[in-house]
Amino acid sequence: MSTTTTPLRPSTGRSPRPAVLTIDDLTVVYEVEDPVTAVKAASLTLAPGEILGLAGESGCGKTTLAYAVNRLHKPPARITTGSVTFHDRDGSDVDLLALDDEGLRAFRWDKLSMVFQGAMNALNPVTRVRDQLEDVLAQHRPQLSKKQRRERAGDVLERVGVDRVRLASYPHELSGGMRQRVMIAMAMLLEPQVMIMDEPTTALDVVVQRDILREIVRLRDELDFAVVFITHDLPLLLEISDRIAVMLRGEIVELATSDDIYRDPQHPYTRRLLGSFPSLSGDRGAFIRTGVDEGSSPETDTRTVVLPDPDDLPGRGDLPTTARGDAR
Fold first, then answer.
1. Per residue, what are the HEC states of the chain?
2. pLDDT digit string (tens) for 159-215?
3. What is the pLDDT of residue 120?
4. What total of structural domains would you count in the chain?
5. Residue 135 belongs to what domain range?
6. In terms of domains, do 181 and 211 share one?
């Protein structure tokens, strides 16, 4: 009898609660000699506590969309149309595109935070972890004493699975997984309502990656913040996301629950994405992790891995010189 892999986050679809973030008809253009429209009329909503996956190939506009939400673009990038509205817990709405510099400074990290792509290298290499975490608190929670800031920094570090003794460490003294956890701790330090994660598990081995994903889901359940999870890894999103938006050439071409994306993808590009990932056994796109097709009985599943006969392999003398390890 075959077994199945339980998703980190069961697909439950969109939360019936009001949205915490609304993006409507958002367009971002890089105004170079030949203008490039990186995001085209993107529209989506994010519910409180929801994990929304944003998938697509490199260069499709995922990070550009995230930067537009956070107002992090610099010229020549410009938001030409659309709106981004944050719906606060207190019932007020914030037009993010209308905020001035001071308003943005107060909003970022407090209401909406971001774990950047290449986050492991985002920490200041010559500053201790303690000082980098406490700096966020000093800017946004000036009423806290130094002792309270230190205690809060240690608490949030332990919440992501890192011992508070690491507050005294420099980034180079931490492993890649630990540095990534520190960045997640910094993003959740002020308990924001929305966290944008831009490929937070890139460059991590699969074991550490899964540990990080479990932490993200656990913290989301514990603190009830919403997550926009950006990656090109669609199978990963199928495991942790409530809904998935698929981007192609700057446009959101499909938006549906994870279950619908997996079982009944509507757009041809989504189907190609699903078909592009080989499983450990079986056909491409099957995501079979048990070694047996879920649609076939073990007796009728005939797919096997065929190894070549050793006698059919070329001898060492038949190989090109460069294949023998000679430096060229």
1. CCCCCCCCCCCCCCCCCCCCEEEEEEEEEECCCCCEEEEEEEEEEECCCCEEEEECCCCCCHHHHHHHHHCCCCCCEEEEEEEEEEECCCCCEEEHHHCCHHHHHHHECCCEEEECCCHHHCCCCCCCHHHHHHHHHHHHCCCCCHHHHHHHHHHHHHHCCCCHHHHHCCHHHCCHHHHHHHHHHHHCCCCCCEEEEECCCCCCCHHHHHHHHHHHHHHHHHHCCEEEEEECCHHHHHHHCCEEEEEECCEEEEEEEHHHHHHCCCCHHHHHHHHCCCCCCCCCCCCCCCCCCCCCCCCCCCCCCCCCCHHHCCCHHHCCHHHHCCCC
2. 988 999 999 999 999 988 889 889 999 999 999 999 999 988 776 778 878 888 888
3. 65
4. 2
5. 126-185
6. no
